[in-house]
Specification:
The complex is a heterodimer of chains A (157) and B (196).
Chain A lengths: L5 E3 L1 H17 L4 E6 L4 E6 L6 H21 L7 E5 L4 E7 L3 E7 L5 H26 L5 H4 L2 H6 L3
Antiparallel strand pairs in A: 2-3, 2-6, 4-5, 5-6
Chain B lengths: L2 E3 L4 E9 L6 H11 L9 E4 L5 E14 L2 E9 L7 H8 L4 E7 L5 H17 L9 E6 L9 H8 L6 E3 L8 H20 L1
Parallel strand pairs in B: 2-5, 2-6, 6-7, 7-8
Antiparallel strand pairs in B: 1-2, 3-4, 4-5
The chains are: A alpha+beta (157), B alpha/beta (196).
Amino acid sequence: MNRAHFILREREYGAFLSVLRKLRTDAFAKVVFLVDKNGTLVASTGEASGFDTTALASLAAGNIAATGGLANLIGEKEFSILFHEGERDHMHISLVAERLILVVIFDRRSSVGLVRLRVRRVSEELAKILAAAQEDAGGEGGVIEELTEEDIESLFK
Amino acid sequence: MSFINYSSREINCKIVYYGPGLCGKTTNLQYIYKRMNPDARGKMISLATETERTLFFDFLPLTLGEVRGFKTRFHLYTVPGQVFYDASRRLILRGVDGVVFCADSQLTRTDANLESMENLRVNLEEQGYNPDKVPLVIQYNKRDLPNVASVSELHALLNQRNVPEFEAAASTGIGVFETLKSAIKLILNDLKRGAR
């Protein structure tokens, strides 16, 4: 496994955010999250203040991991789309470029068909931004490289 | 795999608490949750059975101080310890930056400790890690109970890599933060080395 860091710079963050905002508008969604497959929030847009975004990111990643495990058991590589239907709000979760998880929360103002269509359209754009981010990082550690023993010790003072 | 976000100026790392069933992994996280300043920790999530056995994982996000203008965030996970949840354990190890192996010091749990350590090595390897290189800290938990193995016995059994080891009684908090601090230091040092 590649143990290099996943580095997200301002430029790619801005690009992700702009795609998420467009998706939210076009899909009439309440909130859109982009999550790293390991469970860390990358970006979000919409009425996110009502949600515990850290917990949501972790559980979405757990959800994708568990269904991926189920997929393997029946000989599938991955289940790339999950849909959870609630009484008021619904959640559409999809995998982007096997690395990111796109979470769309919507209510009756939208529909699963519309969300699925819009998600499919933006997934390629997100994958391109991700590829650019990985190329841009080029194994560079940035802030991590510069850490000193003193920096690490200072966390525990 | 750590995640460095230049936009929110955060470094995110994942720590997994591993070990046999009922060794005290969840208890470690519960103690950390209880004792951390609420500003420095998020909500603790436990995906557990009705009898409070971990079914999938526990999750506790912590935010420590800043280094070089970056907030350091650590996501603590536990695995389900029971032998038959192996598929879930493998999934939780994905993207891990460091492992805390929580051993149950009771003599009756010797085999379970050994089996779990071997299982950790197999699962790390399956996830593409070198089990001899992943940052690891060992905690000998339940030192407050009678009929426990000596630390030297546990060391000989479990700590062939000679990694940092701590005695603990997680239910009262003894050794919990020492273990966590050591894991965090190892991870940051490992990331630093890996970045070069």
